[in-house]
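Quick one - inputs below.
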Amino acid sequence: MGKIMKSGKVVLLLGGRFAGRKAIVVKTYDDGTSEKPYGHALVVGIERYPRKVTKSMAKTKIAKRSKIKPFVKVMNYNHLFPTRYSVDVQFDKNLLNKDAIKDPIKKKKVKFSCRQRLEEKYKTGKSRWFFTRLRF
Amino acid sequence: MSASQKKQKKAIESINSRLALVMKSGKYCLGYRQTLRTLRSGKSKLVIIASNTPPLRKSEIEYYAMLARIGVHHYTGTNIELGTACGKYFRVCTLSITDPGDSDILRNMAGSEAAAPQS
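Output:
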């Protein structure tokens, strides 16, 4: 009898522009807030997955193909599908919060810092499932 | 009736009677949306799925229950029958028991269904 939505969990986005993308739950708001009276979560996901890379490619080519474009979003639980995977990425907590998402300049900063963390994680080769595109 | 049929009939009756007790004395949630909500929050103790739920929805609920380590019982009967078993005049495809009250449904169902959610 455990709670499913926890930070660090990988979820799939079920609708919207980023439908089918994988995301990591950063912060959960189980009981909602006054503005959003439903369970929702702050997620960081991958908008553009890194391209496939083989050993025979040049280093510069690999570097170019390993770029990740992230997105940060606040999503209703109903529009997320939890998976059994979880990814341990240390996002910059003071940067990443709900207000930062509303302000476009802050949002850019947040996305950049998320991008760095995600690319770091990708380069270590762990959590490979998270960085592959879900084919459907 | 053959022996296995008799046994099945007895099993069905016992589930129905236990469900009736839960309806009277416990807390439950009827319906897909509410069961998902209870599954997410971990408040659910047992999830019952009717036999004619669409397979995609069935798999989805089983997956959620696997994540939350909650037992799933596949009710032998359609949503119409499950609704009747709950004493309601509408169909019920999925139901979630949050508090069994005086019923021993959890002990009996969870024991036999411990294998099922993992599959």
